[in-house]
Amino acid sequence: MGLFRRNKKLSTDTSANGVKLITAMKPKDVISEQFRTIRTNIDFSSVDRQLKTILFTSSDVSEGKSTISANTAVTWAQQGKKVLFVDADLRRPTLHTTFGLNNTQGLSTILTQNLDFHDHVYDSGVENLSIITSGPVPPNPAELLNSNRMKALVTQMQEEYDLVVLDVPPLLSVTDTQVLASSADGVILVVRQGAAQQAAVKRSVELLEMVHANLLGYVLNDVAPKNGYGYGYGYGYGYE
């Protein structure tokens, strides 16, 4: 039986610059409803294929993929699914900060030391949602994420959870994400309005297509609707 750790508190930063866990802290907020809409659209985007592993990525850094993946993972857990959220961004991890967790061990140590992942699963503080943090930044993140050990680990996670959500590195920054994306049931591309370059988004889509990844759609982040900060979900890019 693995050690199941409980964190002490959740982040309460719900500012416009970083809506951290608003779905957990303010589930009735209009932004929380937008995340539930994203969840529903993802669920319906692959009706003929069961989604067991979903990757959230972006073209470049600072587009909000970690905030969006965290809040969407919370909404799946609130729906009653047993969810494991994994910080697989081994270069710029943020999950431990968002959930107020210790990051001395995590995915990197599980892979490098061939540890039982159950011993490094944290209770998120949200019912049905468990967490594996990144662990210390390793010298060889690409090799770890693309290893047979990582593939076997994800397979084991799929057998024990209804849904495994992975926050992975940006596509254009490193090579880590493509191999993971090719074996995932679905990929969501986060695009920050006003920040992402059209050419970069188009290239990201091409990279996913090259490995035959199942691109479910994109989340348009930092939209400015009439009522303030928001998100939009869609498919298709309009960058021809």
Automatic annotation (TrEMBL):
Q: Which reaction(s) does the protein catalyse, per the Swiss-Prot or TrEMBL entry?
A: L-tyrosyl-[protein] + ATP = O-phospho-L-tyrosyl-[protein] + ADP + H(+)
- Is rRNA processing among the key words of this record? no
Native source species: Paucilactobacillus wasatchensis
Group of enzyme by EC: transferase
Gene3D superfamilies in alphabetical order: P-loop containing nucleotide triphosphate hydrolases (3.40.50.300)
Q: What does the entry give for GO biological process?
A: capsule polysaccharide biosynthetic process
* Domain of life, per lineage: Bacteria
The protein here is known as Tyrosine-protein kinase CpsD
Q: Which GO terms describe its molecular function?
A: ATP binding; identical protein binding; non-membrane spanning protein tyrosine kinase activity
Instruction: Name the family the entry cites.
Output: Belongs to the CpsD/CapB family.
Q: Where is the AAA domain?
A: 63-202
Question: Is Iron-sulfur set as a keyword in this record?
Answer: no
Tell me the pathway.
Capsule biogenesis; capsule polysaccharide biosynthesis
EC number(s) from the headed UniProt entry: 2.7.10.2
User: What's in the keyword line of the UniProt record?
Assistant: ATP-binding, Capsule biogenesis/degradation, Exopolysaccharide synthesis, Kinase, Nucleotide-binding, Transferase, Tyrosine-protein kinase
Instruction: Name the Pfam families on file.
Output: AAA_31 (PF13614)
- GO CC field: plasma membrane
- Which InterPro entries does the UniProt entry name for this protein? AAA_dom, Bact_polysacc_biosynth/exp, P-loop_NTPase, Wzc-like_C
- UniProt function note: Involved in the regulation of capsular polysaccharide biosynthesis. Autophosphorylation of CpsD attenuates its activity and reduces the level of encapsulation. May be part of a complex that directs the coordinated polymerization and export to the cell surface of the capsular polysaccharide.
